[in-house]
What we know:
The protein has helices at residues 19-35, 70-82, 129-132, 166-174, 190-215, 269-278, and strands at residues 5-12, 40-42, 85-95, 98-106, 112-117, 148-149, 154-157, 179-183, 187-188, 218-222, 225-228, 236-239, 243-245, 251-254, 261-268. It is an alpha/beta fold and 302 residues long. It has one domain: Nitrilase/N-carbamoyl-D-aminoacid amidohydrolase. The chain has a 6-stranded mixed sheet. The longest helix has 26 residues, at 190-215.
Amino acid sequence: MTETTFQIGLVQQACGQDRQANLDRAIEGIREAASRGAQIICLQELFASPYFCKTVCDSRFELAEPIPGPTIEALQPVARDLAVVLIVPVFERRAPGVYHNSAAVLDADGSLAAVYRKMHIPDDPLYFEKFYFTPGSAEGPADGFGAIATRYAKVGVLICWDQWYPEAARITALCGAEVLFYPTAIGWHPAEKKELGEEQADGGETIQKSHAIANGLYIAAANRVGHEPEPGTDGIEFFGRSFICDPFGRILTRASSDRPEVLVAACDRRRIEQVRRNWPFLRDRRIDAYGPLTRRWIDPTP
């Protein structure tokens, strides 16, 4: 990691029922990103299948696999042959009855560098993740927040709902991450799109850009696209808009909302240094005063 710059890539795709077809499309996207110079490439959340948490269904646990397992073993030679780092989201079966929404980080030699397990688990209409996923724990980069050293950069990984929590981004930055990846599956309830769609999409991008600014690092968010039906509902329309921004929150590249795309952008360590010198938020933190953050709520003093 002696170079001043490194290249990152995102693969935005639509997902169908055929797991092998989803994997093949992901590999095609990885190869395209690598051909354009990307050295670290991130796939979207739960990319190997449609987003299955739209309903509560025991049989969908059959989609889970161990780490390493079939998906990781299929992508390890791809990482090795292309000499790229891969961030590979997986529905992980860790043990009987213990399942995680995870992301494996494969280093450029194909080795398994770390596994991040999603810490914040939502429970909303068509996002019934608490039924399926055990949250990760604060055990470091093998499970919770942390920076993962790879051949090209120190990377942080958070997953989708984690994006709304500034504490998660801050801890990951303090561990030394130079770029923070957010594999994501976020979309519209079609009935709400006309009234709320634009502000919902803008809110997700804004909060992630704020993490870039507050922590002086690069942010890269990979989302899926396409309408995914669910019997008895109108399904979810995933709105894509994957993007990469710099430590000042400036968008370097952004995908469309309606088609698969591959994004590639350069990250410059000098930019991280420059922004942190001029916006020294890490310097001016009052670490002696933040103890109350460990409490659920702060009741008023009588």
